Amino acid sequence: MKRRLLISLVLCLFFSQSVFSQLQKAKAHWTYSFSKPEVKKGETVDLIFTAVVDKDWYIYSSDFDPDLGPMLTTFNFEKNNTFDVVGKLKPQNPKEKFEEVWGGKVRYFEGKGVFKQTIKVLADNPVIKGASEYQTCSHVTGLCIPGNDDFEFKGLKVVAGAATSDPQPTVGAAAPETGTAASTSEATAATANVDSASQTAPNPTVTTAEAPEANTAVEQALTAEDPEKDTSLWGFALAAFLSGLVALLTPCVFPIIPMTVSYFTNQEKGKFKALLYGISIVLIYTLIGTVVSRLNGPAFANFLSTHWIPNLLFFAIFFVFGLSFLGLFEIVLPSGFVNKMDQKADQGGYAGVFFMAFTLVLVSFSCTGPIVGSLLVASAGGEVVKPIIGMASFSAAFAIPFTLFALFPQWLKSLPKSGGWLNTVKVVLGFLELALALKFLSIADQVYHWRLLDREIYLAFWIVIFGLLGFYLLGKIRTPHDSPLEKVSVPRLLLSIITFTFVVYMIPGMWGAPLKALAGYLPPQSTLDFDLNKRTAGVVSTIAPGETRKYADLFHLPHELEGFFDYKDALAYAKKVNKPVFIDFTGHGCVNCREMEARVWVDPAVQQRLRDDYVIVALYVDDKTELPESAWYTSKYDNKVKKTIGAQNADLQIVKYNNNAQPHYCLVDHEGNLLVKPKNYDLNPANFAAFLDSGKAAFGK
């Protein structure tokens, strides 16, 4: 069954917050405008929906697979004869990321989101209004809050001079747009006389404001800095700097350090020239990063993240670099070009110092090329400044020793002697390159559902690669450029112990161990063909035989847990067996709900308490399964008719438990009264187990 994740829960904007102090409004403020102030009857105009999203929150877009899982933003128009909807809704430049919990790519907005919908005006005074459905989620707390706001477009001037033929659409509506929109028939099934559509636009002139604080929110969103972006850049800069230090330990670079330092210490103004030498190295690598940054805009980043070609290309790059480091071949630049730069370096003077630095960059390319290439691949994410920062950080670490040893030549005595250990560093990097190459292949495999690199296949490759690395460190394997190893040094022995420990840690993952430390690198556990964590048929059921469980054919609980999906059924059964009820207010599109299930519910202590101490009921607040008309009712909260499973569950959460965020966990008695304070997103299993214990204790009093 397709999962249509359209939220029917609405937030009454003018309802007194003092009544429901725990309720939270969706963290998006909407404004509505037209792409042009006046049109002729029969012409088209773009409706502009602008959402200003609070800091540290995001809103899902409307243009990805609705069956993937997360909740899409939609705008449902009240159908009338004053206008027609033309085409689909188009979101304006949303961000995109791969979410392993859904096994696919989602699109979303942070700070500000803009949507455009083209309409054809059919009357002098068009009545354009309807309701929006969307969901905002927090990066910080993990809460997800659904929103449903009424909208109305006013102020469009329709001038005389009706069109005699089909008018040309406005800019932005001419080309057909690929996107996701609920069809008219589907929308009608949920709300009478409503058409559903989805789209985006350029920055419009706001003509109508929903709330007085909207303009302030826009200003804050445009001027606020993104702390996650800054943290990401700092982390990338640190990784690039450490990569530069690693590059110094390769056999192409390390032996050159003493010779280069000796050159500067034996001539006039040697220390200044050494400083210029280091600066030249930084400038050369930074220039490379600048060239890459010119190609690295949002469109390029979108191509990198959505298409199989770049992912397979990056896989090939890492794979080839890995083979090069292992000694199969060397990646070198044309000798004629290198010799020409070397001749210019012999000219002396400050220009000669620059070309000497350029020669070092070229000569060391066979060792530094794979590292530099990997950094440039990692920086290809749409940020113009990232490749520049990466190359500047890498080259700074690369240049510092040459400059410092020239300024303080006595430090050269502390350098270890060159030897076979330099090639060992290179080979170890080769194994790591091969392992990381699989990540790019895995991304393409998951996005396009090729099923070539399922979790157990991926783990098998990593186990073999790191197992071979461990044997290499022990001297049991030799590559083409290795010298014989008569004895194993203590550092190599310690590294081999760490490597084999990592291998042993991964082996249980072949049969279902969660391997939480590698969650960001491995394919989803759902791709396992054989999972020992799944319960066997011999396990005794926690639900009495013959017990009717409404909607059990539509929903299921994780980890083979058993429970209910209807609130009244759960309370009735709990009274029969004299147990408290664990209510899980969840949603198909709730990422943090899935994360709680994967990282907290999987804990044995938590599972044992859920199985033995509680009657579980999972209430999906975003499910669009329509109930029989006899089950409909009008909510006391917003005076709207609740027709679907999700709408009624969401209304229950608001009216009964004063909350509208997911995940939200309530422990209640047979009458639905809270036993303890509810709990939301918390990834600490011990805290969750204590929460369950407190509910059980309160029930027993």
From TrEMBL:
Per the UniProt record, the source organism is Dyadobacter chenhuakuii
What topology does the record note for this protein and the membrane?
A: Multi-pass membrane protein
**Sample GO molecular function, one term:** protein-disulfide reductase activity
Query: What does the entry give for GO biological process?
Result: cell redox homeostasis; cytochrome complex assembly
**Keywords assigned by UniProt?**
Cytochrome c-type biogenesis, Membrane, Signal, Transmembrane, Transmembrane helix
The Gene Ontology CC terms held by the record are: membrane
**Protein name from the UniProt record:** Thioredoxin family protein
State if Nucleus is listed as a keyword.
Answer: no
Coiled coil location:
none
List compositional bias (Polar residues) regions by residue number: 193-208
Instruction: Provide the taxonomic classification.
Output: Bacteria, Pseudomonadati, Bacteroidota, Cytophagia, Cytophagales
SUPFAM superfamilies of this UniProt entry? Thioredoxin-like (SSF52833)
Thiol:disulfide interchange protein DsbD N-terminal domain location is 37-151
In the UniProt record, the signal sequence range is 1-21
Domain Cytochrome C biogenesis protein transmembrane intervals: 236-441
Cellular compartment(s) = Membrane
Q: Give positions of region: Disordered.
A: 191-210
- Output the Pfam families linked to this UniProt entry: DsbD_N, DsbD_TM, Thioredoxin_7
Give yes or no: UniProt keyword Transmembrane helix.
yes
Transmembrane stretches, start-end: 233-254, 274-292, 312-333, 353-376, 388-408, 420-437, 457-474, 494-513
Which InterPro entries does the entry mention? Cyt_c_assmbl_TM_dom, DsbDN, Thioredoxin-like_sf
